[in-house]
Amino acid sequence: MNNKVQLEQVNIHFGKTHAVRDISMTFPENSVTAIIGPSGCGKSTLLRSMNRMHDLVPSARVTGKILVDNGDIYDRSVDPVAIRRRVGMVFQKPNPFPAMSIYDNVIAGYKLNGRLPRDEADEIVESCLKRVALWDEVKDRLRSNAMMLSGGQQQRLCIARTIAVKPEVILMDEPASALDPISTLKIEELIEELKERYTIIIVTHNMQQAARVSDYTAFLYMGDLVECGETKKIFTTPEVKRTEDYITGRFG
Amino acid sequence: MMQGVTLRKMKNHLMSFVMLACTLAVLIPLGLIFFHIVKMGISSLSLDFFTHIPAPTGEPGGGMANGMLGSLIMIGGASLIGLPIGILGAIYLSEFGGSKISTLIRFAADVLSGTPSIITGMVAYTLLVVPMKGFSGLAGSIALAMIMIPIVLRTTEEQLKMVPGSLREASLALGVPFWRTSLKVTLRSALSGVLTGILLAVARIAGETAPLLFTALGNQFWSKNVMQPMAALPLQIFSFAIAPYEDWHKLAWAGALVLVTVMFALSLTARYFGRTRQAR
Description:
The structure holds two protein chains of two kinds.
Chain A: E1 3-14, E2 17-28, E3 32-36, H1 43-49, E4 60-68, E5 71-72, H2 80-86, E6 87-90, H3 102-106, H4 108-111, H5 118-131, H6 135-138, H7 151-164, E7 169-173, H8 181-194, E8 199-203, H9 207-213, E9 216-221, E10 224-230, H10 231-236, H11 241-247
Parallel strand pairs in A: 3-8, 3-9, 6-7, 7-8
Antiparallel strand pairs in A: 1-2, 1-4, 4-5, 9-10
Helix pairs in contact in A: 5-7, 7-8
Chain B: H1 2-41, H2 47-51, H3 65-95, H4 100-114, H5 117-132, H6 137-161, H7 165-173, H8 178-189, H9 191-206, H10 210-213, H11 233-241, H12 246-279
Helix pairs in contact in B: 1-12, 3-6, 3-9, 3-11, 4-6, 5-6, 6-9, 7-8, 9-12, 11-12
């Protein structure tokens, strides 16, 4: 299987804080990789480096190589905007655009970048909402405000918005941690379906969730990569004692 | 024990009464001003007032139509100059800020908005009227813009800062460039608050008289050429009020009534925008 994303000795600093230390690992194409670890271990920091979200934080410094399809996304010649179109992101808290309708939220990636022909927009909205299993719930009120939806619906809308711009990789930063169990289940089912088309990297606090949805798991602790490999193996026969302690709930 | 409770309740009532009195102390002058202006001005308000220029000395009738037109032109000009500078500057401060320059800009804007407006007028006189060898509506617009910019800059910046960072991230993560995100997501989300700030700034400059004395000067006739001296409502109120004729005083009162009504309406509209924002 192809390695879609590859990290080579990635270090991330915020000012004097060394948040991610020398991490090298790979993310295989069309699979789900979970990044787990206790709060403050650098999971989200690592995730956000993969579509250059740290560019906005003046004190952040990313060194090492992050390759997407073997191209270094931190190369000087690379436009971060182009990278973010290939590597989409879903955030912890659902964040639909409050001034937009459900319809406009799905095509926000196009609308904010210019115009989109009406028939094309209709098609994108319907297909994306169907893929996140939201179509039947909202098809009669596409023009109403996106904030009218429940938290779980909002998060599925955000996923629809992300896949509408046809990314190759989707980063998910604890996408279900603000949701109730039923909504969480729906998101997890969705992730399972999405991996047929996309490479998914998900940060999660929830160990059961990592075990349920992911093919590969990486365990981070205090900015270090402790262990990574197939999820089945990490959860049954981890090689490092610390991983076992964390997974079994002995710390963290 | 019972005595303690009674004392506490009495203190409570006393303080409530003091605060009510303070509120009234604020409201009473406002009410006095408003009712006095209405009483004095309403009798001189007629269709002529809105359609005619001031009558020659000694003749009855006449209005302040040229002053209202001049005010509109100069406020429009000031907005054309001041709004882009104020709003774009606010985007810089809120979205790219954090450097030493932005601290300097904020400080400068705060000092500028505290500067007496007559000083602004004198500066505009020295920098514009003297080199251009004449008073003009354009100089008036620029002087008003100088008053408008710091107000718009600071209120817009505050509104932009209140937009949650998660919205900016959502837009950026969709591959939208930062500048488009700033305009179409951040500014758009803060729009109602920004509009409130703009309306308050317009209301503020609509009543400014001192800076116009040195720049637009005023005009007894229709004045649509921005390169010529231009009439303005507050200027006409000023010159009519200090004139020795009784019927001119009446016209000044009518002018004051129009001006106060316009500012009242602007403030109410601003409040309305502010409220719809909170409701959302």
